[in-house]
Write a structure and sequence with these properties.
heterodimer; A: about 190 residues; about 65% helix; B: alpha+beta; Lipocalin; 3 helices; 10 strands
Chain lengths: ~190, ~190
């Protein structure tokens, strides 16, 4: 039940999916709020929290990618149309890329910041900076990149959620439910 | 010229040898002095997790020193620092330090130190204990003072000490930034 099969997801993939999804959306909300809050103290503390969850996210995403590469992936149910069947792998690949690139761009941002505030995830240890040059220009570049990558990623997440709802409420297939329980499998599965 | 040098000079002048040297020097230094901005500095360092530190200085401060020639223990030191003048070389850090996250310079315009006792520890050195008040909170602090010279009515002191910023409601950023603020101060004071 831990591992995936060609017709259903296992617990590991399910837990990683929801955990990463929850942290990712939470990070988007936190990132949006922390730079708009009036209190500089609260803002500073929220930014450190955002960095902590960002590193946690990056770690979980790396585990998830490893798990995905070392596991079978259940295919789409047979009733899924040809166009969606073709589009789904690209959207999933883009989602994986976003999960990786958004936290990495955040890490780059704190690494090049002229404020040189150390990163200390959950106050546990000092995370070294990426070997990038510190400068005002580099900081502005990574602020821009991190922000717009996050907006693009959240747009993909919204698309992903809408697609899941479409499968569940419109097409009434198992695509959403099989990501909630490993006891739900495709009636007939073809690898993606 | 240090107290020790003054003392030696006094021996020669008076033809005395013995433990009265310091007392003679002290009597020469006795009096009331006003700290002059020219030649004085108040610098601080806050250690950062992973090494390095945040260096800063206060640009505006004032104060007076009264040396009791008969009893060094009855000497007084009063210093007022204007936190709005804090500078680190990085404007965004300065703005953060002046904000309600740290000094709250808009509402708490002064940091004051009023000595309560001066204890001589050597020919040229003393421990100055006093009440430090910042952001409406008062705590007892100790500083090591060393007399560097007395020339043309100008006293030169070096003062150092460690202050826990958590005592003054300024613990933002711990443990990324140390709770200990290391002060290094040089004072040039003219006879008032």
């Amino acid at each position: 039940m831990l591992r995936n099969t060609t017709t259903r997801y296992g617990w590991a993939a399910i837990v990683l999916h929801w955990l990463i999804g929850l942290i990712f959306i939470g990070q988007f909300v936190l990132g949006w709020a922390m730079v708009r809050i009036a209190s500089q103290r609260t803002s500073f503390e929220l930014i450190q929290l955002h960095k902590s969850f960002g590193f946690l996210l990056l770690g979980l995403v790396l585990i998830r990618i490893g798990w995905r590469l070392g596991n079978a992936s259940p295919g789409l149910p047979e009733e899924v149309g040809a166009m969606e069947r073709r589009a789904a792998p690209s959207v999933h690949l883009a989602l994986y890329a976003a999960q990786l690139v958004v936290p990495l761009s955040g890490w780059a941002l704190v690494s090049v910041s002229v404020l040189e505030i150390p990163s200390m995830p959950f106050n546990l240890f000092v995370m070294p900076n990426l070997p990038l040059g510190v400068s005002e220009q580099a900081e502005n570049f990574w602020i821009f990149s991190h922000k717009w990558l996050a907006y693009a990623a959240i747009a993909l997440v919204v698309l992903h959620i809408l697609a899941a709802f479409r499968h569940h409420f419109w097409l009434r297939d198992v695509v959403l439910v099989r990501m909630i329980s490993p006891f739900v499998a495709n009636r007939a599965g073809k690898p993606e | 010229m240090s107290l020790r040098v003054l003392g030696v000079t006094s021996f020669l002048a008076l033809g005395l040898i013995g433990g009265t040297a310091s007392a003679v020097a002290l009597s020469e230094a006795a009096g009331r002095y006003a700290i002059s901005a020219n030649g004085s500095s108040i610098r601080f360092v806050i250690g950062k997790a992973g090494g390095g530190g945040l260096n800063g200085a206060f640009g505006r401060f004032s104060g007076s020193i009264s040396i009791d020639g008969g009893d060094i223990g009855r000497s007084k030191v009063d210093i007022t620092i204007y936190p709005d003048s804090v500078g680190t070389g990085q404007g965004r850090v300065d703005a953060f330090l002046k904000s309600d996250a740290v000094f709250d310079a808009a509402n708490s315009r002064q940091i004051t130190f009023r000595s309560t006792s001066v204890q001589r520890t050597g020919d040229n050195s003393a421990v100055v204990t006093g009440q430090l008040t910042a952001r409406g909170r008062t705590s007892t602090e100790k500083f090591q003072a060393e007399l560097h010279g007395l020339k043309n009515g100008q006293l030169r002191f070096h003062v150092s000490g460690k202050v826990l910023r958590s005592r003054y409601g300024m613990d933002v950023g711990t443990p990324i930034y140390s709770n200990i603020v290391d002060f290094e101060m040089n004072f040039a004071a003219r006879r008032a």
